[in-house]
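Support request, priority: normal
Reporter: lab tech (M.K.)
Component: structure prediction queue

Hi team, I submitted a job for Fibronectin type-III domain-containing protein from Rhynchophorus ferrugineus yesterday, and the status page still shows it as pending. I've pasted the exact input below so you can check whether something in the sequence is tripping the parser. The sequence length should be 516 residues. Please let me know if I need to resubmit or if it's stuck on your end.
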Amino acid sequence: MKMLLFMVIFYFCNVNGFESDLIGCFKNMPKNSSVYLANIQGDDHCIKSCNGIYYRYFSFYKGHCACSNFLGEQVTNSTCDSYCLDNQCDGLTQITNVYPTGNLVPGPPRNLSIANITSSSCRVYWREPESYINIIGYVVRAVPTQTFSTYPSNTLEWTFGNSTFQNEISTLLSATRYNISVHSISNEGNGASVYQIITTKLADPDTLPQQPVILSSDGYKMKIKLASTTNNNGPVSAYRIIVVKSDDNQAFQKDSVLSYTEAQRNGLSYYVAAEIKPEDINKEFTVGDGKRYGPFYNARLDPKTNYNILLGLVSYYNGETKIVYSQASGYHNGISILNVYDDSDQGDSPGVIIGLSIAIGLLTFMFITGIVGFLILKSRIVNRRQRLSENQELTLQGPMIEVENNGYIHEEDHIPVNHYRNLKQKVRTLSSNQLKIEPTNLLGVGKFGKVNSGTLHENDTLTTVTCYSIYDKKMNQDTKKSMLQELDLLIKTGKNENILNLIGTSETREMEVEIT
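Reply from support: The job had stalled in the queue. We restarted it manually and it finished. Here are the results:
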């Protein structure tokens, strides 16, 4: 009896609740903007269903439920049953009780899709909501939920007009999971959102690894100290130790760094000696110990060869791999290893280290002094030969062949020494300290040498240039003669189809560099 009384009270409260929200009895409800729902059990189920799909009104009469954002013609502000008591209502009379759902904002946009996902951007597509009255615009929001970056992970937001249904969003973080959502804006407030989870692609690590520090060397092996590196563009998965034979002067191609065996087979002067875990990076490492580290063999070093040691940072994520290396060998972009032999068993003691440091300093001083003396002696010999050549030209007798100024006598087997000086006087000669060649950026190989990019420091400004390195000391007479002829032609014209402008030349002990 008590249970029955409770159900009766609840029923009347429920009915009276809906009656108090009744807008009225309507006929001719707009069919093209209404949604008719089947299998609805009561008006409570009807209001929940219409509110769940973001309609403003629901109508329920004689077991029929419909949802709509617009009203028809109102016949009375009371129920349809009250109206039919005073009027004749037959089966053809299309009337229904209309109630508010309490929802005023638009529903979620339809057909959300995301494509063209890169490491920093993606393109978002959507359509207008199923239920709405007016829309002012749309808001696309990107909320990071997981990232490797140490930068602040702020929510990004973009606003578009009501006629825009696709756009590219950028400035996203690499290797980061985002919740991408879209909702509409109306006069009554923000509409419901629809969202999709994406993950941006992996980008190259944003920080280069620090250069290794050499601690000791015995010719066949060398002990180095490594340092960890942060990466805001993805995980730090591993580190790779690269051995470079600096004597070979081979361009370092980061996309062709292979194992020791594969490098030997392909004629490369650099190889991966080891791959170590991030937790082992702060430990000392011995290059050339003959062990395997990961899939790589740490081969013994040749005591007669100078080496550079580079450190690579490896990042694996979602099937992608990105690797960056410490600055390439040469121009202080690596560790230049000298062959220091230590016969003592206690090579790590402070006394031995101090003694080796003093010996290295003295040898370096003697080496530099020897180079300076060699350059002075070479300059004197060249000047002496030039004076002898000029004297011989003054005492020449017999028939003379007239030639054009700055031309070449093709019948001669040898080019006079002073002819090269005449060519140099017609173009600027730049100091090698002003020029920095990038050995890792090989642009091509010419007839007389390699072509690399570089920078020229002049008058406190840096200029990007192209450097043609010519090892003229290693050329035979015919090749050198051909090179000088092409250089003379280039000086006269100043440019050709491959050169916009000849800036000048620079010389070292081993080669000449044409700067364009």
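The helical segments are 2-21, 42-52, 80-86, 260-265, 350-394, 417-424, 477-493. The chain is about 20% helix and 35% strand. Let us know if anything else looks off. Ticket resolved.
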